[in-house]
Specification:
The chain has 6 helices and 20 strands. The chain has 418 residues and is an alpha+beta fold. It folds into 4 domains: 2-43, no CATH class; 58-67 and 321-403, conserved putative lor/sdh protein from methanococcus maripaludis s2 fold (Beta Barrel); 74-83 and 229-319, Beta Barrel (Elongation Factor Tu (Ef-tu), domain 3); 118-193, Helix Hairpins (Orthogonal Bundle), CATH 1.10.287.
């Protein structure tokens, strides 16, 4: 009865109610973001003001501009490859009766690796030898008869035709003896194949066939793979734009190559070996626009292993008396590269021209001179004429250029006026 007296009841659609809830949530999120934006700058501004007050010098690290001979390196990625790789196969059929090596063993050229049962091949050699002896006896008798017939022809006791027939028989038997010798050589060679020897100096891999198995000359799988590790080769590629300088360096014979371990995230690690560039491929790969090169390393310590990836550095030239700075000193702007030069308690923005540059140092061909001090840390807050305070690096935090040793095979750097 009460429901009837209250009048009609308004029914709110479910979709409209859900839309109102979503709008309310969005308003709350916007309010939270506005509050964060409102309060966050105040805190950061106070912190920045505490770090650097207006008019206070900006602390920076500087490094002196140096002059020295700088080797020019090209970097690439290489794959280690054995100098020689030989898969040992048997050349005769038969039971494998012995294996004379251990897996992973270093072997010399001529060392016995395996033995196939030789009895069948030794019997074939004995048979060929006996056949030759038989034919040699027949030949000796035919030669005696020929000499007798030739005397009888001279005295007309026999015809010349009979003497010529005997002479032909001697020639046939001589040919037969030579054929027997060829059979002996073949049987002897087959017998020698029963003893399998190493054709190179190298290291054996994992044995593929165990003693007691029947092996065949047509088997696809070999007995073992031998790789020569000393010396060893590395194949690597460089962009085709490097072809002229690489070709010049190879022609002059000063193309030294470094192989180094790949560190975390591709960083340069320990130098594994120093070698020489031995082959420059005779064509550019048109699909990748690169040239393929091959370097040879002595690998005396066995640090290079076939199939592994190593970083490669190829020295193609040496810049004499070059002006060098750490790469961190070079800044980039719309007008080109520049550096901040410390002059007393202020800095001067100086445009520079950069020649060769890598991750260790930059060669400046114009804009700087020996004796200048350039900013290597803190340049992001500087402008022309900004006041600075030069701070000393913490212990063990010296600039990379001063702490970096010279690359193997290069002269130590010269500082100051050269």
């Amino acid at each position: 009865m009460d429901a009837l007296t209250r009048g009609p009841v308004e029914v709110v659609p479910r979709g409209r109610s859900r839309s109102r809830v979503m709008i309310a949530l969005c308003l709350l999120v916007l309010a939270a973001i506005a509050g964060a934006i409102w309060f966050w700058p105040a805190g950061t501004t106070k912190q920045a003001a505490g770090d650097h007050k207006p008019g206070q010098p900006i602390p920076v690290l500087v490094a002196p501009v140096a002059q020295r001979d700088v080797p020019i390196w090209l970097d690439g990625l290489g794959t280690v490859q054995a100098f020689y790789t030989v898969t040992i196969h048997t050349m005769v059929d038969g039971p494998l009766i012995a294996v004379g090596f251990k897996e992973g063993q270093d072997v010399r050229k001529g060392d016995v690796l395996a033995q196939v049962d030789p009895r069948t091949y030794r019997a074939a050699l004995d048979q060929a030898t006996a056949k030759q002896a038989q034919d040699a006896a027949l030949l000796a008798n035919a030669r005696v008869d020929l000499a007798r017939y030739q005397k009888l022809v001279a005295t007309n006791y026999t015809t010349a035709q009979q003497a010529d027939t005997q002479k032909s028989l001697v020639a046939q038997l001589e040919a037969q003896v030579r054929q027997d010798q060829a059979q002996i050589d073949t049987a002897s060679t087959q017998l020698s194949y029963c003893t399998i020897v190493s054709p190179i100096d190298g290291r054996t891999g994992i044995r593929q066939v165990d003693p007691g198995n029947i092996v065949h000359a047509v088997d696809v799988t070999g007995l073992v793979v031998i790789t020569q590790l000393q010396p060893i080769s590395v194949l690597f590629t460089l962009p085709q734009q490097s072809l002229p300088v690489v070709a010049d360096a190879m022609r002059l014979g000063n193309a030294a190559v470094l192989a180094y371990a790949q560190g975390a995230a591709g960083s340069r690690g320990q130098v594994l070996d120093t070698g020489v560039l031995s082959v420059l491929d005779n064509q550019v790969d048109p699909t990748t626009g690169t040239i393929k090169l091959k370097a040879t390393f002595p690998n005396k310590d066995g640090k290079l292993w076939p199939g592994g990836f190593v970083g490669m550095r190829l020295q193609v030239d040496t810049a004499r008396d070059a002006i060098v700075v750490p790469p961190a000193a070079i800044q980039r702007g719309p007008s080109g590269p520049y550096a901040f030069v410390a002059t007393g308690d202020t800095v001067k923005r100086q445009a520079v021209t950069v020649g060769h540059e890598d991750e260790q140092e930059s060669i400046v061909t114009a804009g700087l001179r020996v004796g200048d001090n350039v900013v290597i840390d803190g340049a992001s807050r500087l402008s022309d004429g900004t006041k600075i305070a030069v701070v000393q690096p913490a212990a063990g935090d010296a600039p990379e250029e001063a702490a970096r040793p010279s690359a193997p095979g290069t002269r130590p750097g010269r500082s100051g006026g050269g």
